């Protein structure tokens, strides 16, 4: 399937999605978000790959929403745009594959939201992150949701209230990204991380991703009770049985989705 605003490739159980509006700094237009949601759900349903890497073509990861669409749209159009973005974030969360944001250049507003919503993120050391909506009178309320769940309340509010850039090294310290590497090593480092995860069972990865987000806001022992049920059921899967036998027999496991 061809896309107008995206590029997509699969390689060794990893899917690579590239935002492809370099002339608009990969702004998240209605059309791009619709394509991205459709593609993510397709990946999740087909299960051909075990990991998804999300990156940008050109000099920028993503500058956020297309402000021209917001300025020119009716209130109904704007609501539809933000609802479409909501569906994109839901797709990132709900597909079984972990989504890794590969960040270069800038990730601002909804572009920063994409990074925060991803399961993992690798950034070039010259990458910059910001939620600058306050500067144009449009507070970054939707990016605030995932941002505040990544970096903590005080730092999130600082970013939201000042609109200033957070350098990659600071983003690493505050938990917005997992790893920071020299620009020339960004592609290799992201592929290496994706490759490590892609060695494992998608059944186990998907169950673990779903359970992680289900338990994260529960009280400790409510979470432990839930996790106990999940891991008990997980032991009955074909891949868990194979993995345990392989460990005991000192051999490499053969996953059902390999």
Automatic annotation (TrEMBL):
Coiled coil: none annotated. InterPro entries: ClpP/crotonase-like_dom_sf (IPR029045), Enoyl-CoA_hydra/iso (IPR001753), Enoyl-CoA_hydra_C (IPR014748), Mitochondrial_ECH-domain (IPR052377). One of its GO terms (molecular function) is hydro-lyase activity. SUPFAM superfamilies: ClpP/crotonase. Keywords: Fatty acid metabolism, Lipid metabolism, Lyase, Transit peptide. Pfam families: ECH_1. PANTHER family: ENOYL-COA HYDRATASE DOMAIN-CONTAINING PROTEIN 3, MITOCHONDRIAL, PTHR43602. May play a role in fatty acid biosynthesis and insulin sensitivity. Belongs to the enoyl-CoA hydratase/isomerase family. This is Enoyl-CoA hydratase domain-containing protein 3, mitochondrial. It comes from Desulfofundulus salinus.
